Amino acid sequence: MDSVDSGGSSSVVSGSSMLTQALPFSSGNPRIEETRGVMHLYSNQLASFPYQLPVGRKSLVCVLGVPNHMTYADFCRFCGSFIQHMLEMRIVRNDEMEDRYIVLIRFDEQESTDGFYKHFNGQRFSSLEPETCDVFFIIDVQYTGSIEHAQTSLVNSTEQPTCPVCLERLDQETGGILTTICNHSFHCSCISKWTDSSCPVCRYCQQQPEKSICFVCQTSENLWMCVICGFVGCGRYKQGHAIMHWKETQHCYSLELETQRVWDYVGDNYVHRLIQSKTDGKLVELNVHCSHAVNGCGSCECSGDLGINEAMLSSKVEAIVNEYNELLSTQLESQKLYFESLLQEAKEDTEKEIAEAVDKAVTLKLQKLQAKLDKCTKEKKFLDDINENLLKNQEIWKAKIQELEERERRALRLKDDKIRELEEQLKDLMLHLEAGQAMEQLSISDEIKDGTVLKICGESSISNGTRLSKSNNRKKG
C-alpha cells in the first residue's frame, strides 16, 4: 500500500487496493424524457478508516441514499459553507431505492472535495432521523441512455444557457449549478430559495406517489380507477375487479391508469378522446394517426396549416370537455340519487335497529326489575315468618318469666315464714333458758339458806346445766 501526502494530514490508499463498483442511475421525467447512466465509484471506503482516501481520486463525489423528504433547498442548507466550492450538483435516482435519491457533486478543487468527504461522511442528515450521509468518490460517470441531452460529460449533459429563476447565464465561474431530477438546471442560490420538492419549471416532483395496486387482488397490472369514488381494480383480462365494482355500485366511468383514458361500461366504449403523447407529453386526439409518428403527434408539416389545426383542435378540445363534463354531471347526479337512496335505507335501518334495541333494552330492564321484585317479595315473606316466630317465642318466654318470678316469690315467702318461725322458736327457747336459770338460782339460794349442801346434788346440777347448754347450742345451730 502506497501513501502520499494530500492536504497535509490525510492518508491515501493505493488505487490498486481499492475495489470499484458500478452503480446504475437515471434522471428525467419518465413520461417525457429519461437519461440513464452508470457511475463507477470506490466501494471499500470503510467507516473504520474514514480518512483513508484513494489515490487518483477526482474532485467528483456522490452522496447516496438522500431521503426524498429532503428538498433541494434542504440539501443546500445541509452542505453549508461547502456550497460555495461546488461547481455543479446533479440529482439522479437509484431505481433500486424508490424513496432515496443520489446527488452527484463536482468541486472546484481537490482540497474542498476531501474536506467535504471528511466532514459529512457518516454524519446524520437530521438529529431526529437515523439516515446518514454516505459520501463516495467517483471514478467515472458514463451516460448510456439514447436521450438528446445524454452525453459523456456531467456538465455538458444538463447545461442550460440561462437560469429559469433569475434569467442569468448558468456559468460555473459565477456560481454553482444544480440540475434537478427532471434535468432542469438552476443556480444553487436560486434553487435554495425554492422550498417545494417540485421543479420550478415543470412541477415534476421528486417524491413520486406510490404505485397503485388493485384494492382486491393487490396486482399492479392493467389497473382501472373509478372516477366517481376512486376505487382501483384490475381489468377484465386479469380478474375483473373493476367491472365487478361497476356492477355493484353502478359507477360506469373508469380511468385506465396506464393510458389515462376513460371507459364507459354502459356504452361499452371510450368517452375520453384525448390522450397524452409519450413523445412530448402533449394532449392528442385518440385514433388520429400521423404519417410521421406512431402515436399521432398532430404537430408535423403534414397536418396542414398550424393555425387552422390549432383552432380546430381547440374547438374539439372544448367540445370534448363540455361533453365529458355533461356526462360526468349526469353520472354524478345519478350517483347523488343513488347515494341518497342508500342514505335513506341506512337511516331507516338505523331507526329500525334503534327501535329494536330500545325494545330489547326495555324488555331486559323489565325482566331485571321483575326478578328484583320477586327476590324482594321472597325476602319479605321470609322476614314476616321470622317476625311471627319471634312474636310466638316472645309470648312463650314472657310466660316462662312470669312463672319463674312467681316461683321466686313463693320461695321468698316460704323463706320469710321459716325465718319468722325460727325466730319465734329462738325467742321461746331464750325465754325457757332464762326461766330455767332463774329457777336454778332460786333453788340454789334456798339450799344455802337451809345449810345443807350436797356434793352429789351439786355435781348433778352441774351436769344438768352442761346438758342444757349443749341442747341450747344445738337448737341455735
TrEMBL record:
Check the record and name the PROSITE patterns matching this protein. ZF_RING_2, ZF_UBP
Question: Which keywords has UniProt assigned to this entry?
Answer: Coiled coil, Metal-binding, Zinc, Zinc-finger
Q: From what organism does this protein derive? A: Carnegiea gigantea
A GO cellular component annotated for this chain's UniProt record is:
cytoplasm
Provide the protein name: BRCA1-associated protein
Q: Check the record and name the PANTHER family matching this protein.
A: BRCA1-ASSOCIATED PROTEIN
Q: The organism sits in which domain of life?
A: Eukaryota
Domain (UBP-type): residue spans on this chain:
197-290
